Amino acid sequence: MRKRILVSLTLLLLCFSAARDLQAQQPSATPGALTFYYDYTIFPGKENELMTLINTVGAPVRDKLMAEGVVMAWGVETPILRYPGGTTHLIWFTVANWAGVEKVLNGMEARLAKLAADEAVAARRGGRATMTTAERSRAVFDGSKTRDWLTRDIVANYGPPPKAGVLPFIRYNFSKVKPGKAADYRRTWEKYNKPVFDKLVADGVVMAFGLAAEEVKTDGDWTHFVWIATATMADADKIGPAFAADRARRSEKDRNEITQDFLDATEPDKARSMVTRSRIFKIAPEN
Question: Which of these, 40, 33, 105, lies nearest to 73 by C-alpha position?
Answer without folding.
Answer: 33
